[in-house]
Amino acid sequence: MNTGRSAIDSCDGRTAWASFAALGIDADQERKQEEMGEETTLEARERHRRVLVTGGAGFIGSHLCERLLARGDEVVCLDNYFTGRRANIAHLLTNPAFEMLRQDVTAPISLEVDEIYNLACPASPLHYQFDPVATVRTNVQGAINVLELANRSRAKVLQASTSEVYGHPRVHPQPEDYWGYVNPIGPRACYDEGKRCAETLFFDYHRQHGVRIKVARIFNTYGPRLRSDDGRVVSNFIVQALEGRPITLFGDGSQTRSFCYVDDMIDGLMRLMDSPDEMTGPVNLGRPYEFTMLELAKLVIEASGTRSEISFEELPEDDPAQRRPDIKLARERLGWEPTIDLPQGLRKTVAYFRRLLEI
Length: 359
Ligand SMILES: NC(=O)c1ccc[n+]([C@@H]2O[C@H](COP(=O)([O-])OP(=O)(O)OC[C@H]3O[C@@H](n4cnc5c(N)ncnc54)[C@H](O)[C@@H]3O)[C@@H](O)[C@H]2O)c1
What we know:
Layout: H1 13-22, H2 27-35, H3 41-47, E1 50-54, H4 59-70, E2 74-79, H5 86-89, E3 98-102, E4 115-118, H6 125-128, H7 132-153, E5 156-162, H8 189-209, E6 213-218, E7 221-222, H9 233-242, E8 247-250, E9 256-257, E10 260-261, H10 262-273, E11 283-285, E12 291-292, H11 293-304, E13 310-313, H12 328-334, H13 342-357
Helix pairs in contact: 4-10, 7-8, 9-11, 9-13, 11-13
Bound molecules: nicotinamide-adenine-dinucleotide.
Nicotinamide-adenine-dinucleotide (NAD) binds next to helix 4, helix 7 and strand 5.
């Protein structure tokens, strides 16, 4: 139910009722809202943690919104639906503790919040290369906007950074103090360099303004609500297998990735947010076991129970050869370790795609 709460988000508790009046909401309506058990902004903030999730209608974001609501937080989801979908959050819309704001993260954000998870950014190469300039703007201007908001509301802010900041790593596995090896002018640079600049901004706001920051370097994450059409390897393979088509491998299939199931990732992100203020990161979050693309294809065929063949295509430019997180820091400082192995996670993901594709 929309009570006009989002319209008063920029107000503090003292001016909230004045804003209701300015919106033309009369005393009767106010009374009705109270009778229905609605809280004012002030009451809600005293009672619950209010959390902003940018990119909350996306794959990881929608799972995060769910988990935050389940533990009793009030959640504001901000998304421009570039790659996110209403269907991902449709089941949350009736929850009075959940609000959806259709907004671009590059526009100034007027809210009062306690914590911010900044996830807004297309994550698949197909989508972030669709409009590379917009991708850079989303990363850089988006980071400035959430950091300005955190500074104003004294909120903690977590950045969803990426293993892509390591580029074509010369160190393997990648620890957080490895600075990476990134092509700054290639077709993936809008994402890789955009995320690197966002990390820079996070640490500059921390040093310059004392903003409480958390930087998570997320490695490949998969699970239900991945899009079937976004070119990410797990969803691609599963859809191809379920439709009985050949599974397409790029190059000779020997490049490696480490895959983390989404539930484990959400757990890691929430633990990082709840960690002491001095734990700024960057911290790697991912499952530290490496699989070649050929191994992944075989596991997907097994989990789907189909007989797809494997076909080989040309390797795209700047595709990293290997990826594996060193998660010593997350283990020691967050007590975090992924618990769901790849065959188990693939079975859950295949079940989701079976329902989605009605196969
Ligand atoms: N999934 C992964 O394996 C992975 C790995 C590393 C980092 N990450 C990071 O995690 C975050 C979430 O990734 P995901 O896999 O859920 O991707 P996703 O594409 O499903 O989600 C991104 C969300 O951000 C929204 N968005 C994009 N641009 C926006 C803008 N300008 N304003 C407002 N909303 C905008 C999209 O509509 C979408 O809902 C991203 O920042 C991504 O870079 C993900």
